[in-house]
């Protein structure tokens, strides 16, 4: 038997949204992201491969900057210090900051040293830096 109240003639509709399921879903997503976020920052050792892309032709008088394993620098064939880098580049490029600098680094040079040299180039105003590598043997030229 179903009882209905007849004291109120108009039935009232509930106009409020039930937010409890929404809050449950948001809390579950929050927990998932809290668990997944640290997993995405795992340090993995990387052995970067060489390039198999066809080499591009070099300009007629390229400016080569070489970083050796002992952290010494050479601009072309001339050895320079890190303090002399900006003035030696200005001389080699004749003051043209848009000329690309071809940066060569020994395979055993650590990543931090390479980035430090690139930062010095950037602070000297040279923004076009090309990294030089050896083509793999199977590369068709």
Automatic annotation (TrEMBL):
It is found in: Cell inner membrane; Cell membrane. InterPro entries: ExbD, TonB_ExbD_1. The chain crosses the membrane at residues 21-39. Pfam families: ExbD. Keywords: Cell inner membrane, Cell membrane, Membrane, Protein transport, Transmembrane, Transmembrane helix, Transport. The accessory proteins ExbB and ExbD seem to form a complex with TonB. Belongs to the ExbD/TolR family. Involved in the TonB-dependent energy-dependent transport of various receptor-bound substrates. PANTHER family: BIOPOLYMER TRANSPORT PROTEIN EXBD, EXBD MEMBRANE COMPONENT OF PMF-DRIVEN MACROMOLECULE IMPORT SYSTEM. This is Biopolymer transport protein ExbD. It comes from Commensalibacter nepenthis.
């Amino acid at each position: 038997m179903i009882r209905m109240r007849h004291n109120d003639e108009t039935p009232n509709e509930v106009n409020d949204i039930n937010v409890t399921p929404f809050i449950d879903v948001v809390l579950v997503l929050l927990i998932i992201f809290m668990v997944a976020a640290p997993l995405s920052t795992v340090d993995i050792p990387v052995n970067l491969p060489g390039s198999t892309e066809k080499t591009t032709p070099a300009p007629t008088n390229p400016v080569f900057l070489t970083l050796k394993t002992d952290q010494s620098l050479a601009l072309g064939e001339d050895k320079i210090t890190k303090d002399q880098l900006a003035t030696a580049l200005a001389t080699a490029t004749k003051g043209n900051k848009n000329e690309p600098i071809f940066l060569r680094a020994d395979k055993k040079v650590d990543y931090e040293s390479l980035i430090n040299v690139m930062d010095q180039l950037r602070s000297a105003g040279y923004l076009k830096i090309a990294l030089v590598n050896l083509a793999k043997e199977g590369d068709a030229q």
